[in-house]
Amino acid sequence: MPPYSREPTATAIYWLGHYILELEMLSKSLEDALNTQLHLEFESSYVYLSMSAWFEWKNMLGFAKWMNIQRDEEQFHASKFYHFILDRGGQVKLQSLQQPRWEWDGPIQVFEAALEHEMLVTKSIHQLVDQAMEERDHAGFTFLQWFITEQVEEEATLTAIIDQLRMVQESQSGMFLMDKELGARAAEHPMP
Ligand code: FEO
Questions:
Q1: What is the pLDDT of residues 77-112, one digit of tens each?
Q2: Does 178 reside within a domain?
Q3: Residue 82: inside a domain, yes or no?
Q4: Could you give the number of structural domains in the chain?
Q5: What is the pTM of this model?
Q6: Radius of gyration (Cα) for the chain, nearest Å?
Q7: How far, in Å, is the centroid of ligand 1 from the Cα of 183?
Q8: Atom of ligand 1 nearest to the CA of 41
Q9: Which of 53, 109, 126, 165 has the greatest number of beta carbons closer than 10 A?
Q10: Backbone angles phi and psi of 17, in degrees to 5
Q11: Could you tell me the distance, in angstroms and rounded to a whole number, from the CA of residue 99 to the centre of ligand 1?
């Protein structure tokens, strides 16, 4: 090759490739944080399954169905994190699930516990977004935007249900109608 050729040398190509790869790689700390969130989504699914079982045990089958569909939603969220970690070249590290709560005083208490849980998830998503921003991980930042919107929807839905339950709490027929209404929920992301 002539001394002043504009052709890139093999060494230059190697280092350029290495540099691009470094830029696109998921950092170890973000990989860990995404795995923590993956775990939290699986735990959410388990929490909703426990709530669904409690409602079914009380023969409130509409509430049970609503909770079971929410369980599937959480599995869908978990699968989004699972695939994102792998698509970015990271490693998925599954953890064991904590035993969820299985006893409540009534439907309002179950939905209040669900809202409290979702507020914890929202906080965790916001921390993840902060971390992706600090690390200038643009793909991670974009991926997480969907979850910010999703958390707003989930908290708003639960707050509305709690408000309605408080309105009818002394009325058995009101509670019966709410059970029917929530039982009409259709699955958005049914699990196979
Ligand atoms: Fe995946 Fe309900 O948060």
A1: 999 999 999 999 999 999 999 999 999 999 999 999
A2: yes
A3: yes
A4: 1
A5: 0.87
A6: 23
A7: 20
A8: 1
A9: 165
A10: -60, -40
A11: 18
